[in-house]
Amino acid sequence: MKRSVSLLVVLAMIVTTFAGFATVAAQDDFAINFDSAFGLGSISATPTAQEHTFFYTKGESKTAGGWFGGAFPEGTTLIYTINDGAEQAIGTSNAEEAVQNAVKGIVKDATLFYRFSMDLTQTLNDSYQEGVAQNVEIYAKKPDGSKVLLATFKTDLAKKVSLDKALFYEGDPITVTYNNADAENNDWLCIYKEPEEGQEYGPQPNDYVSEQYAYVDGSGTVVFNDPQNAVEGNDRTAVPIGEDDYSQNIIVYNKDSISTLAPGKYHAVILGGESWYDVECEKVEFEVIAKDLITAENGDYTVNLSLLEGVSQNWASHGYPDLISQNLGYNNSWPIGLFDLSGFESVEVTYATDMGFEAKKEDMTLTSCFALMSENVTIGCANQTEYSNADKIIALANCTDASVLNPDAASWARGERTAVIDVSESTYQGPIALSHFNSTGNTALVVGIKFIAKEQPADEKTISMEKTTYEVGEPIQISYTGAVRDNSDWLCIYAGADSTYGEEGGPISVQYAYIGGDGTIVFNDPQNQVEGNDRTATSSELDKAYNETDKIFFQVGKDTPLPVLPAGTYHAVILGGESWYNVESDKIVFTVEEKIIGDANGDDVVNGADATLLLQYLAEWDVVVDESNADVNCDGELNGKDATLLLQYLADWDVELGPQTA
Question: Any signal peptide, and if so, which residues (predicted)?
Answer without folding.
Answer: 1-22
